[in-house]
Design brief:
about 160 residues; alpha+beta; two-stranded antiparallel sheet; 3 helices; about 45% helix; about 15% strand
Length: about 160
């Protein structure tokens, strides 16, 4: 893999972690939502990541554009930058929490209201994990940029 492939990998991880942070924010915002358009309380969402082989890189595009019989492939041609992607966002299967509140408009016949099973502590830990992973991938991109700049300086000499 070349340096640009490393940037693609870090970039895909940053996109996936951004989505994870957005889902956590939606969970926190809906922690008290007792009625949704689908009916019933809001269901906590979770992000599922998957490995991604990525798209062909620049060398693949050039190699396929100028390939002729009898010519060797370009160095690095055929390399694909691996990465991460959001496979899906799934609802947490946990049952809703029941709280006694007979005056609430969504109370059942016994006076209980179904609330989402969202623990703010769990959500904050998940958000911290997403933030740290995003930051680490940002640092990796900066390091990769430094390596490219150093390689250009060496080539210039």
């Amino acid at each position: 893999m070349n340096l640009f492939g490393l940037m693609d990998t870090s970039g895909s991880a940053m996109q996936a972690e951004r989505m994870r942070a957005e889902v956590v924010a939606a969970n926190m915002a809906n922690a008290e939502t007792t009625r949704t358009a689908a009916g019933g309380p809001y269901r906590r969402q979770e992000v599922v990541f998957a490995a991604d082989r990525g798209d062909p890189n620049f060398l693949d595009s050039i190699g396929s554009a100028i390939s002729r019989p009898g010519l060797p492939p370009l160095p690095g041609a055929g390399a694909v930058a691996p990465g991460v992607r959001v496979a899906r966002v799934v609802a947490d299967p946990s049952p809703p929490l029941k709280r006694y509140d007979p005056g609430h408009p969504d109370a059942d016949g016994e006076g209980y209201v179904a609330y989402p099973d969202i623990n703010p502590l769990t959500e904050m830990v998940d958000l911290l994990g997403a933030t740290r992973a995003y930051g680490l991938n940002g640092s990796a991109v900066q390091a990769e940029k430094g390596m490219i700049a150093a390689a250009l300086e060496i080539a210039k000499s």
